[in-house]
Each structure stands twice: as C-alpha cells, then as structure tokens.
Amino acid sequence: MLDVRGLQKVYEGSGRRVEAVRDLTFTVDAGELVCLVGPSGCGKTTLLKCMGGLLAPTSGEVLLEGRKVSGPPPGMAFVFQEYGRSLFPWMRVGENVELPLKQKDLSKARRRELVRDALESVGLADAVGAYPWQLSGGMQQRVAIARALAYEPRVLLMDEPFAAVDAQTRADLEDLVRGLWRKRGITILFVTHDIDEAVYLGERVIVLSASPTVVREQLKVDLPAERDQLHTRVDPRFAELRTHVYEQIQAAKRGPEPRGPKSSVQ
Amino acid sequence: MIGRLLLRLFFVVALPVVLVAVWWAASDGSTDPFWPPLRTILDTFPDVWTADQLRTDVVPSLLRLLGGYATAAVAGVALGTVIGSYRRVRAVCEPVLEFLRAVPPPVLVPVITLFAGIGDTMKIVVIASGCVWPILLNTVEGVRAVDSVMLETARSYGVTGIARLRHLVLRSASPQIFAGLRQALSIGIILMVISEMFTADNGIGFTVVQFQRSFAIPDMWTGILVLGLLGFLLSVVFQLVERRVLGWYHGLRATTRRS
Amino acid sequence: MRGGNVALGATGLAAFLALGEAVPRLGLVKEAYFPPTSRIAVALANEVSDSAFWSALGDTLTGWALGLAIAVCAGVVAGVVVSVVPYLREATASTIEFLRPIPSVALIPLAVLLYGTELKSVLLLVVYASFWQVLIQTLYGVQDVDPVAEETARSYGLGTWARVRHVLWPTALPYVMTGVRLAAAVALILAITAELVIGAPGLGRQIAVAQTSQAVPEMYALIVVAGLLGLLINVGARTVERRALAWHQSVRGEVAV
C-alpha cells in the first residue's frame, strides 16, 4: 500500500546543512494501523510530510499503491497536531469538513451525506453549525478527524494528533481512532512520541532512531484486536512491549546504532 | 432588566443632550456673525438641504466616493495579494510602496487635475489613488501572515488555486484587509471633500465652500453638520459590514482573551 | 538574506525611477503632465537651494509638530480622565463614537472664517484629526489593565494618582505609542491639506502655487519632498514606538479601530 524506500531529507539553508532523515525504508500494508515512534526531534514530522507529498525528499521515494508520490495524493488525508491552526476559524464545523470535498467532483447531496456521516462517526453531529473555536481542544481534533474521514482516504496520516490535548480526552480519542480503523478498514500511519500510545494503538510499531533518522526496529504488537483502556493497559504483554520499546528509545537517544536497521518479532 | 436598559439608554443620550443644550444656550442671542445661534442653524437646515439639494449635491459626492473607494478596494486587494504571496516581489516593491504610502494623499489633487481635468473622473481617480495604499499594504501584511499549518492543510487536501485564494488566503487576511479599508474610508472622505473644494460645480465640499465664500454663515454651518452626519453614517455602515464579515474573528479573539 | 532583501529593494527603487524617466521620454504620457525623473531631480535641486522652500518646509513642520503635540497631550489626558472617573467612560462613549468619524475637513470653511490663512487654521484641522487617534488608543490601553494588578494596587492602599502612575500608565503606554504613530501620519495629511486648500503657508501652498503657475516639475519635486517627509515621520514614529516598547514584555498587536 505504502512503500518508503531509502528516504533521505537534508535541509540546506544559510550555509548550514542538517540531515533530518538519513535512510528510511519500510512498508505499510493495506488496512494496517502502524505507529511510528521515536525520540523527540527525530524527524518524525519531516518523514510524514515527505510521505504526504508536502515536502520533496532529497533522495529516495515514497510509493502509494505503487505510484510515486510527488505532491499531495488524492487518496491520502492528513491530521495535524496543531488542530487550532489546521481548522479554518472563519468556517463553521460543517464547512470545514466540506471544503476538501468541494475540490472533488461530488454532488451537493453526496457532500452533505459525507459530512453528516463523518461528523456522526466522531460523535459531533450536533456541532455542524458551531465555529471550531467554540469547541474544546479534543472536539476540535475530532472535527479534524472527521474532515479526514469525509475525504474518504485510503491512507490516513496522523502527526502526533493528540499531543496537545489532556490525558482524559486523549484516551477517548485513541479509542475513537482504533474504532474507526476497525470499522472503516482504512490504512493508518500514526506518528507519536508517546510509547504507551504507540503500543496501545498499533498493530505494528516502527521505532525510529534519533536524528539523522533510520528505522531502528519494527515490532509486531501481538495484543488482541479488541482493546480497551482499562484491560489492555494492565495486560502483562502490554507491559513487556512497552518496556521493550522504551529501552529501544532510550538506546536511540544515547546514540545511533552502527549496525543499521534490524527487524525482529519478539 | 428594564432598569439596566434604561440606565444604558441614559448613558447613551445624556451627554449629547447636555452638549446640544449647552450649545443652544451659549449661542442663543449670539450676535457674532461666525457663531450664529443653534436655533438659526436648525431653522436654516430644512431650507438648505431639500430633497433637490440632496440629489444635486450629496448623491454625486457619494457616487464619486463609492466609485473611487471600490476601485481602490479591488485594486488594493488584488495587488496586495500578488505582492504578499511572493517574497521576492515583496522585497522589490517594499521601498517604493513605503514611499508612495507616505505621500500625503491630498497632494494628489493637483497632480491628477493635470491628467484628468476637473471632472468626475479626476475626483474618482483622486479618491482611488489615495485610498489604495492602506488597503494594499494591509493586504500584503495579511496575506504574508497566513498560518503555515493552514497552508499545509489546504495543500494536503487538494485545496489549490482559486479555492485556496477564496477560502483560505483572503479569509485569513480579512482582518488586516478590513483595518486597511477602514483607514481608507476616512482618507476617501477627506479626498472627496477637498477635491470638490478645489474644483467642482457640485458636491457637498463645493457647496459648503460656496456658502462660506458668500458669507451665508448659517448655511455653511448646516453644511458642516451634513458632512459630520455623513462621516458618522458611513462609519456606522462600515461597522455593520465589518461585524458581519469578521464575526468569526471577534469571536475567536474573545475566546483566546478569556483563556 | 537581509542583504539580499536590501539589494532587491534597491533594484525596485531603481526600476521605479527608471520607469519615471522612460514613460514620458517614450511619449506614453505627455511630458507637460509628467516630467521625467531627471527633470524632477533638477527642479528639486533648484528648490533645495531656494530659501523660500526651506521656510515653507519649516512652516509645515511647525504646524505638524505643534498640532500633534497638542493632540497627544489632550488625547492622553482626556483618555485617562475618562477612564479613571467612574461612569465617565459609559457617559462619553456615544459622544465619542459620534464625533470621531466626523471628517476634520468639514471644519475647513469654519477655519477659513475664523483664522484665515494663519497657523491656527492648520492647528484646528490637525488637532481635531489626530486627537481621536490618541484618545481611542489610550482608552483601549486603559481597558487592557490587568484587574489583578489593579486590585493589588488598591489593596496596598495606593491612591488614584499612584495607581495611574504605576499601574495604568505602564499598561496603556504601548497603546498610546501606537496612537501617536497613527496620529503623526494623520497630522501630516491634515497639515498639507490645510495649506493646499486654505492657503496657509507651507509645502501644500507651494504645491498649489506651482500647479496654478504651470511649474509642473517644481510641483512634482515638492510632492517628492512631501512624500519623503511622510516617510521620515512613519519610520521615525515606528522607531520611537519600538524603542519605547523594548522594555515591555509583550509588544501587543495593533488595535483595529
């Protein structure tokens, strides 16, 4: 579904050369929910922007369904961390969700239907007529998710979407994302710096090294598909997995691994 | 509830009533030819500002203002959007724009008289070329300051071209554009009046100066009142439009202020 | 980056001047209406060596500075008094909202009758126009005073004067500076207007004289001077504003009035 091959991104400006991403290769299969986790400042956002066609990689390539990504592809939707800056404050919730649909060739009735359906599935059917800034942070991020859903993407890229909301809301939103993924069968790539979140949400966790970034480890999360905040998080297997990821991240912070990426199924 | 409403009403009308009363009392029986009694001014008012007079003086003035202002708004927003969107264009234009903005707009009257004579075209061009700078420069600032996350959001959802301009860039710049439009409105009124004072055969500015030159002092005072009322009414209309278009902005600001 | 911008800006300016030279030379507009840059430059050089020009410039600056100073003092004092005296703010709101948008050029005939071409005519227009800018910004500034700071000052038994000096004034100062900057630009516009329309001595009158005597290059030269004066005032006011606010922890955004 999504292939990242030898991706490298170097920022050059005013005489300085910063290698944010060195060499990344991984695949996301159709219908998979993959979490990318890495130490802070490890170029996660750069990677995601390259995948979303918002940034051109220095070398390497990203393939969506076998086709090279050179600009934002129509089958892909993005959920940003900064919900307050990603929703347009001059549009009501409904208009925000509808705007991307207007660029597609859809009938008005179909657009209405998609907007209503998307807002219903994030539990905000009543908020169509409100302005985003009248809603709480968590609700705003739900609107951003609804906008992505209404776009009917095959791949959903989420860039630390819950980093700026409080813990309670965060748990709700995590369950929402997992629920939507199971119901709709979208492929989701979820970037986070929160290890618990990565293990709780993902079917697979890709651990990144510190910048310049390479893949440090890929880890299958063999927890049951039915997860909930109460039981999953006290599952001994959950604890093992999160400890393992935690150690990897700590090691990544200390320094780059000379051996390059390895793959393991624990 | 009713009590508070009455109190607010009292605050709104009390001082104006007192001021008018003071003016009335102080000027009553005045023999100074330049300060006629308010009573005389008000008596003269309906005689001077008949429906006919409104049609031959106020309407042409307003139409010129509207023509010049609308031209300036369209040109200012269009050019401002282009200049604001490209960093290099902005760097090239900036010093020239800073200079052109700094030229006091009234000096345009003699220049444009050279080109366009003394007709309506001259006045519309004068108003337009005076109003365009605050609109243009504020649009540049607004367009430049569009949030980077919003731009990326639009890109990733395929909102490009005209839709991007209409739904994102211009809307996001609209608070600044309106600040420019407001400055331009007061400049436009000034230019409307003085271009008519300079050379004209009708219009409010022309008529008021005629009254003053023929020493029809109470008539002149009514003209000043009409100009004042006009300024006030235009500002009220502007505020109504602004509140409608920028409702979201005021709401957003109130929300961020509270938190 | 910055050096590049300066170079680009200089290019733009050079292109603007070259355009001003080329357009009339190529006959796109009549030279009699729009003389080429070089002829304006010559006229400007002649003006600069003429003492009449300098006294006109002095007259304009006097009207501008005096008017602005009166307006700023009156505006700040009125703004603080209106905010400090109980109920005065509510009572004056409607009057201010009514008087503020009245175009000061409406006072031109009155100024002519009362003062003719004296400096007072200029001052009347300049003060009326710039006073509101300062007053409104001062009112906004005082409104912005942190209620906690105000309460604290009160609980420590600070009197009205001390509260104005230590709490209210520092908070309002950034806004006042914005008001002064806006007023400075408006004051120049009205000073030139008064000279142009009423005939009070100054650059504006020189421009009108040049126009009626068909001295077109001289007229453009004077307009360039007026523009440079405006530029100087804008840049100067912005610099003063930034200096005055350097100590302030947050430089606030401009209030749209």
UniProtKB/TrEMBL annotation, chain A:
<dbReference type="Pfam" id="PF00005">
    <property type="entry name" value="ABC_tran"/>
</dbReference>
<protein>
    <submittedName>
        <fullName>ABC transporter</fullName>
    </submittedName>
</protein>
<dbReference type="InterPro" id="IPR003439">
    <property type="entry name" value="ABC_transporter-like_ATP-bd"/>
</dbReference>
<dbReference type="InterPro" id="IPR017871">
    <property type="entry name" value="ABC_transporter-like_CS"/>
</dbReference>
<dbReference type="GO" id="GO:0005524">
    <property type="term" value="F:ATP binding"/>
</dbReference>
<dbReference type="GO" id="GO:0016887">
    <property type="term" value="F:ATP hydrolysis activity"/>
</dbReference>
<keyword id="KW-0067">ATP-binding</keyword>
<dbReference type="InterPro" id="IPR027417">
    <property type="entry name" value="P-loop_NTPase"/>
</dbReference>
<dbReference type="InterPro" id="IPR003593">
    <property type="entry name" value="AAA+_ATPase"/>
</dbReference>
<dbReference type="InterPro" id="IPR050166">
    <property type="entry name" value="ABC_transporter_ATP-bind"/>
</dbReference>
<feature type="domain" description="ABC transporter">
    <location>
        <begin position="2"/>
        <end position="235"/>
    </location>
</feature>
<keyword id="KW-0547">Nucleotide-binding</keyword>
<keyword id="KW-0813">Transport</keyword>
UniProtKB/TrEMBL annotation, chain C:
<keyword id="KW-0813">Transport</keyword>
<protein>
    <submittedName>
        <fullName>ABC transporter permease</fullName>
    </submittedName>
</protein>
<dbReference type="GO" id="GO:0005886">
    <property type="term" value="C:plasma membrane"/>
</dbReference>
<dbReference type="Pfam" id="PF00528">
    <property type="entry name" value="BPD_transp_1"/>
</dbReference>
<feature type="transmembrane region" description="Helical">
    <location>
        <begin position="219"/>
        <end position="237"/>
    </location>
</feature>
<feature type="transmembrane region" description="Helical">
    <location>
        <begin position="172"/>
        <end position="199"/>
    </location>
</feature>
<dbReference type="InterPro" id="IPR035906">
    <property type="entry name" value="MetI-like_sf"/>
</dbReference>
<keyword id="KW-0472">Membrane</keyword>
<dbReference type="InterPro" id="IPR000515">
    <property type="entry name" value="MetI-like"/>
</dbReference>
<keyword id="KW-1003">Cell membrane</keyword>
<dbReference type="GO" id="GO:0010438">
    <property type="term" value="P:cellular response to sulfur starvation"/>
</dbReference>
<keyword id="KW-0812">Transmembrane</keyword>
<feature type="transmembrane region" description="Helical">
    <location>
        <begin position="64"/>
        <end position="86"/>
    </location>
</feature>
<comment type="similarity">
    <text>Belongs to the binding-protein-dependent transport system permease family.</text>
</comment>
<keyword id="KW-1133">Transmembrane helix</keyword>
<dbReference type="GO" id="GO:0055085">
    <property type="term" value="P:transmembrane transport"/>
</dbReference>
<feature type="domain" description="ABC transmembrane type-1">
    <location>
        <begin position="57"/>
        <end position="241"/>
    </location>
</feature>
